[in-house]
Amino acid sequence: MKGFSELPLPDASFLAYLTAAGLLTLILCRRAPVIGARLGLIDDPRAKAHSLHERSTPLVGGIAVILPSLLLTGADAMLRGFSGGWDSAPTAAAGFSLLVVTLMLLGALDDRVHLSARLRLAVTATMFTLFTYLYPAFSVASLAAPGFGVSVSLGYMAAPFSALCLLAFTNAVNMADGRNGLVIGLSLIWCLTLSLYVPTHLQVPLYGVAVSLLVTGYYNLRGKLFLGDGGTYGLAALIGLTGLYAHGLSPQPGGISSTQLAALFAIPGLDMFRLIAERSERGASPFTSDHDHLHHRLDRYIGWRAGLPVYLALAGGPILVACSAPDMGTPGLIAAAVLYGAAWLVTRRHRQQWGDGPADGKGT
User: Fold this and answer.
1) Quick one: DSSP state of residue 151?
2) 95 versus 113: which is more confidently predicted?
3) Section 13-31 average pLDDT
4) pLDDT tens by residue, 222-259
5) Phi, psi (deg, nearest 5) at residue 293
């Protein structure tokens, strides 16, 4: 297959592209109550005993973030992709856009009718496995740790392993969506970091998504809209697949190593694994909702106004270490483990008291 990097640059200038993305997002954010009402994407706190907000809020933040960039860059790729073979770069770009939109719609459907966790897992796993099998450029062909001079080929396990990584990342992002600004802030960090490791034609849409995140973040922090599962699923697919593509460029100049990519997503990933282990220990399902995520603990400990920048600093610190040099991925992972462990110890007294019953932290 031709490299995804062979796609041409957008015809519009960089500044015009960012301006258009920002304006489209602004329009969608301002119309969020109307869009949410018409699509049935409204988070009503009266329907949930565990809600942490007091007023009905549209769940259209994901649409506002993802659609502008896909409309500006994905439509042309889709049209050209349908006229090409499976090995063409436009088809890969079209498939990428379609997968992101489809997962965003799956999340939006869950926001509306509350699909079972097992059904969402099965559908998402199937789609990720099929996509990474059809487009090997988005799969992990080998695991590499440049600092140790280690590289292990995955062979036929590349697509299943890549799908497993994408599933874990999607779940980690979804579990982190429990306080205003958190997933938006994390996604902004991830987009800007990955832009350093991908070709120019992919940098442009990543910067467009970053602009849309900033605009949507303003409304989200004011409680005007939430990302919803549509936003977390769509963003996880977009960022996760971009990360795997950047990983596929390594060890060529510009690619990101396995350990660097792991450090990029380490803090929400570690929180996810801790929650799964603790839930299993007390005999609960890994899909059980609760208020014991790191962001909940930080909120109870120092309040969310300080908790948000602290969480983003915890996530960003290991990234700065890991991305400072090609062989710094392992030190970045160590930094993530140390920082997360310290945060867990400091906030341990502010963990959820299980006698009060579990609750879902999403929607704020």
Assistant:
1) E
2) 113
3) 91
4) 999 999 999 999 999 999 999 999 988 866 556 898 89
5) -65, 165
**Rounded to an integer, what distance in angstroms lies between the CA atom of residue 87 and that of residue 89?**
7
Lookup result for tokens 């392992």: 330
Across-strand partners of 44? none
In 294-328, alpha helices (H): 294-302, 304-322
CA atoms within 13 A on the CB side of 175: 26
Average pLDDT over the chain, rounded to an integer: 85
> In DSSP terms, which residues pair with 151 in a beta bridge?
144
CA distance linking residue 132 with residue 31, whole number of Å:
36
List the structure tokens of 243.
Answer: 């990360």
pLDDT(263) > 70: yes
Give the side-chain half-sphere CA count within 13 A for 117. 10
Q: What is the pLDDT of residue 358?
A: 42
- Stretch 275-304: mean pLDDT: 89
Q: DSSP assignment, residue 84? A: S
Structure tokens at 12: 């519009």
User: What DSSP letter does each residue of 195-256 carry, written as one string?
Assistant: TTTS-HHHHHHHHHHHHHHHHHHHHHHTTS---HHHHHHHHHHHHHHHHHHHHHTTTSTT--
Q: Measured at the alpha carbon of residue 42, what is the angle toward residues 37 and 44, in degrees to the nearest 5? A: 130
